[in-house]
């Protein structure tokens, strides 16, 4: 072998180019941070974000965002700059993702479900199973709840050939927090397998439950009765959720729609300024909007599914598609961020009955 060939073989690999993102683009929220952290770890590409949450009332990184950054750094040994409260810029250079057992805590009621959302994609592609012990908020406005992830999201992970098993040890509501969740993440044996989800299929079960520890029982009764009257649900379809009084105060009204192809979960949260009837009517509005469509999933599950199917399309070389009742700016922004990291392309076809989101390898 010639000397110049030996030198060429021993030369270090060129560093991956840093992906630079504008945190104020599109929807401009924390999802840009979480998706970019996840895909930076998945691909090994360093990333930098400027103008983080620039348009929000309190711009920059808040505690729950810092918890996501710190969790990502813990599983990847990343080098991080700008990880401090209020920071509007962040640089993140990951190392190899390490499967294992981790504990991640958020003080107060910050959503620990968002931390799970951040580290799940790279751990799904790791070489071994992982167990996470998460503490913080489990049922938060503006974040996926435990029940949403357990009932709606985890079954879709299983369809990819991987597994996500969740156990709720303690509820955590705003403002106290203190919830506890265990998550077992099992990667697929090979590449993640994409699938199409174009129809929700036959309706199998519909029910609502109210979780309201530390709240007068009549509030739960009024919420359930108001929702039941509006939706035509009765008896066993209206349930008082099991909670401990010391897990409150909190108030989450949850509707679960089980169909042959997919389960959807919608949640409305009680507040001091809202009556029980207003909480119920807010949830009814979401349910009716989804049910009048012909879509497989609602707007929130669409965000989650876009990333899962993009990973599967990238690994397998095959495309996938799903239908949703609404394509939000949140979903569009998430798709745009995914395209910055993975060699995939999204195509969105809007329609009144159901819009279609397709992802293909680029």
CATH arch. level architecture of the largest domain: Alpha-beta prism
**Distance linking N and C termini:** 37 Å
Number of strands: 15
Question: What structural class results from the helix and strand content?
Answer: alpha+beta
Write a short abstract of this structure.
By secondary structure, this protein is α+β, with helices and mostly antiparallel strands.
Describe the structure.
The protein is built from 9 helices and 15 strands. It has 4 domains: 14-96, Translation Initiation Factor IF3, CATH 3.30.110; 99-190, RNA 3'-terminal phosphate cyclase domain (UDP-n-acetylglucosamine1-carboxyvinyl-transferase, Chain, Alpha-beta prism); 203-290, RNA 3'-terminal phosphate cyclase, insert domain (Dihydrodipicolinate Reductase, domain 2), CATH 3.30.360.20; 294-362, Translation Initiation Factor IF3 (2-Layer Sandwich), CATH 3.30.110. Mean pLDDT is 94; it is low at 1-8. The strands form 4 sheets. The chain has a 4-stranded mixed sheet with strand order 1-2-4-3, with helices on one face. A 4-stranded mixed sheet has the order 5-6-8-7. The protein has a 4-stranded mixed sheet with strand order 10-9-11-12, with helices on both faces. The chain is of the alpha+beta class. Helix 2 (30-43) packs parallel to helix 4.
Question: What is the strand and helix layout of this fold?
Answer:
Layout lengths: L2 H8 L8 E4 L7 H14 L3 E4 L12 H14 L2 E3 L8 E4 L7 E5 L6 H13 L5 E7 L9 H14 L3 E8 L8 E8 L16 E9 L5 H15 L6 E3 L11 E8 L3 E7 L6 H16 L7 H18 L3 E5 L4 H13 L2 E6 L5 E7 L1
Parallel strand pairs: 1-2, 5-6, 9-10
Antiparallel strand pairs: 2-4, 3-4, 6-8, 7-8, 9-11, 11-12, 13-15, 14-15
Helix pairs in contact: 2-3, 2-4, 2-9, 3-4, 5-8, 6-7, 8-9
